[in-house]
Each structure stands twice: as C-alpha cells, then as structure tokens.
Amino acid sequence: MGETSKQLSANQFSQSMEGLPPKLSNQQYNCHFLSTSNTAGALELADQIVGEINNMGTHGFTAFDYGLQQDVLVMSSVLCVLGDSPMHAEITNTPLPGASLNPCRICHLGVSSRSQKSEADFVYQFLGMDAHGNRGVIDYRSWDENINRSKELWQTELHGSKDNYAKDCKYYGVQDHFSRHLVDIMKSRNEKAEAERIKKLHIDQVLNPFLRLKGFDGCGDTPVEIH
What we know:
This protein is of the alpha+beta class. It has two domains: 11-79, no CATH class; 86-212, no CATH class. It contains nine helices and five strands; from the N terminus they run E-E-H-E-H-E-E-H-H-H-H-H-H-H. It has helices at 22-25, 42-58, 85-92, 120-126, 143-159, 162-172, 177-186, 192-199, 203-206; strands at 2-3, 11-15, 32-37, 61-65, 70-74. Strand 4 (61-65) and strand 5 (70-74) form a beta hairpin. Helix 5 (143-159) runs antiparallel to helix 6 (162-172) and helix 7 (177-186) crosses helix 8.
C-alpha cells in the first residue's frame, strides 16, 4: 500500500499471499490489486474493502482448485499491512512522526514539549533502555487502547472544543484522521444536510476503518516498507 506515483500521488491497496519468499511475493502475478485513487485518501479507500476482508476471514468464499478439480472453501485474514511511515500513522491513528511529541506507533514513546526530545530521558526511552543501560524497558501501546481512545476523542470532537481535542490528542498520542474530516463537515455552515446524515451513523462508521478490521493489531502488524 502507498503512493504508486509521486506525480499523481495515487493511493493504492494491493495484497499478496502469506508465506511467499520475497523473490516471489514481489512478482506482478502475485500482487493482487484491490483499489486505487489519486483523490481519495488511504482511509477512504480502506472503508470500501475492510468489510470484504472481514467477510473473507469469517465466512470465506468458494474457488475452483485446479489440483483437486473441484470447488473449495477459501478463508484468509490479514497478516500485516505494509506501507510507508505517513500511511501507517493514518492506519494506526497515531500522529505523523518526525516533529510529533508521540512519534512511535508501537510504544508510548513521548514527551510533553519538543525541547525534551534532546534530553537523556527521551533518548533512553527511544533506545528502549533505562538510565542504567538495561534493555527491554519498553512501554508498548495496546491496539484496544488506541481504539477506545479514538472513540473517546470522537466524543470530544463532537461536544468539546478544538483546543480540548488537540490537547487530548497530544496527551494520548492518538489522532483519527478519518473522523477529523467528518467533524470538519459537521461544523461547516454550508454542509447542514450532510452533517445530519453523519450524526445518524454508527460510531464504527465514523472512525478509521482499520479499527474494525478483524484480527488486525495496528501496533504490531504494520512493518515499515523499505524501498
């Protein structure tokens, strides 16, 4: 998943089979196209396919097996989602890394101000070490916690102020780019009809679609795609 062309800035979803060695998984005939757009964002595209992936993992579908010469039931789930760092930030409801106070989607690496990022405590935390150099001291994120925080932030977006929302996002290290766009529509004076339609939607329909992808852990199933 990612941009297929910097000129068109097109987002694309494709899938390949689990367990294939890299020399085979990267072959064109093993990469199955799902969806693309040069106008819609990654989460908008995902909203169309998450339901189908969930159905494939819970109910499956029939396909013809050439070796058996008969129809078979096929069921599958998502092993991991490859993408670049900005894409993963959207998928996992975490801030864009870099200048962010909470730059990691896997652990609770974070500070309350940018000036603290140059201090020893942050460097130790970044390296997964304590002040004595002991490794393995990592406060991992929980995907369930990210989901619950996202739901809480949705209520803040609806009923609170923008300042409260921004403050909570920094405190939790969570930001839902999908729902934020919907709130902008709801608070627009020129989108009253659309705002009323959004208010009637179930909470799962207004949050990041990946939060409802069954068997997916955004904190652990998003390895960075290296080109």
